[in-house]
Amino acid sequence: MENPIDQHKLLRFGSLEFLAKQVVEGFITGLHKSPFHGFSVEFAEHRLYNSGESTRHIDWKLFGRTEKLFVKRYEEETNLRCQLVIDHSGSMYYPLQKHPDVDHPNKFLFAVYAAASLMELMRRQRDAVGLSLFTDKLNTHTRARSNSVHHKYLLSLLEKLMQHDAVAETEKTAATEALHQVAELTHQRSLVIIFSDMMDNAEQTASLFHAMQHLRYNKHEVVLFHVVDRPGEELLDFENRPYRFVDLESRESIKLNPAQIKEAYQKEVHQRKNELMLRCGQYQIDYVESDINKGFDQVLMSYLIKRSRLY
After folding, report:
1. Residues of the chain with pLDDT > 70: what percent?
2. Which of 17, 104, 185, 288 is 20 to 30 Å from 6 by CA-CA measure?
3. Are 192 and 221 in contact (CB under 8 A)?
4. Handedness of CA 251, 252, 257, 259 (dihedral sign)
5. Which segments of 140-248 does DSSP mark as H helices, in order?
6. Cα 227 vs. chain centroid, distance in angstroms?
7. Of 234, 188, 235, residue with least CA distance to 215
8. CA angle, 107 then 113 then 115, to 5°
9. Where are the beta strands (DSSP E) in the chain?
10. Are 136 and 89 in contact (CB under 8 A)?
């Protein structure tokens, strides 16, 4: 895409749905085939019977209870069942939007914009989509559906969260338990797409990887968009002067000059990131490095084009 979209400016003039549609229009010109594929032809939901169509899939037991004709709808009609999983803990609200130097979305807004765009792409492909949101627990989980009312409902949930001040409430991260629940609650053989900075407690690293393995054990295809602000969080790229750093989840703070710890910090972050990428490779989880400074549309476009070529 030669002309990156200014998401902030576009959002001022319309809804999240409008933004997603504008972005997907750009995706479609770059994609020659769907980057996602279905897994099964299992039962998905009921729909009203239309006069004149085949009676083969009418649910007669439901007719006996309701005296209305409903047809069983199968996943072959929706092509794909996808669960979008978004981390909206306090750390995802970095960098703070009120800071005068911040001219791009924070990590959470990056995830919301990207998820909304994927919803729109799947809506056009008649795919079924569900949404899961977690902090220190699984706060929201909706099963995947393909109807337009459901899509609009999911978008309205995301728009409400965009107004939610999670930082003020110091929501902590506990991805381990949330991902275990997602693995169990999501229908088997789904595509699970996770947006998270993966900043769980360092002591829980082994448990976190076990939760990711659980997703694969339940036959889900898993894509992890590892959302980071690379200059600030990975490179510690700050001026050579004292700063007061505040943990957005615990509210603990520390005063120091970043230059004094930069080398050791980068080494630790690099080691943790490499371990995450290694485990994703071992569990056949698609790892997507997502630097918010590149723009969500650029990150998504690159990934979708790559995926469409591979599959």
Report:
1. 83
2. 288
3. yes
4. negative
5. 148-162, 175-185, 205-217
6. 10
7. 188
8. 100
9. 43-48, 70-74, 81-87, 128-134, 138-145, 191-196, 221-228, 243-246, 253-256, 286-291
10. yes
Q: Give the angle 76-82-84 at the CA atoms, nearest 5°.
A: 165
Q: Give this prediction's pTM.
A: 0.81
Q: Where are the domains of the chain?
A: 7-39+80-310, 43-74
Neighbours of 181 (CB within 10 A): 17
Helix (H, G, I), strand (E, B) or coil at 196: strand
- What are 71's two structure tokens? 């047809």
Distance from C-alpha of 99 to C-alpha of 103, rounded to nearest angstrom: 9
Q: CA 274, CA 226: separation in Å to the nearest integer? A: 12
SS3 assignment, position 247? coil
The candidate with the shortest Cα–Cα distance to 196, out of 175, 211, 217, is 175
| Tokens coding 225 | 């968009």
Residue whose C-alpha is closest to residue 129's, from 114, 146, 148, 141: 146
Closest CA to 87 of 66, 115, 59: 115
Return mean pLDDT, the chain.
84
Only one residue has tokens 């603990």, namely: 252
Do 183 and 194 form a contact (C-beta atoms < 8 A)?
A: no
Looking at the chain, the number of H-run helices and the number of E-run strands are 10, 10
Rounded CA separation 249/294 (Å): 25
Contacts of 84 (CB under 8 A, 6+ apart): 115, 118, 119, 129, 130, 131, 132, 193, 195
Neighbours of 310 (CB within 10 A): 8
Tell the CATH topology of 7-39+80-310.
Rossmann fold (3.40.50)
The residue-averaged pLDDT of 299-308 equals 88
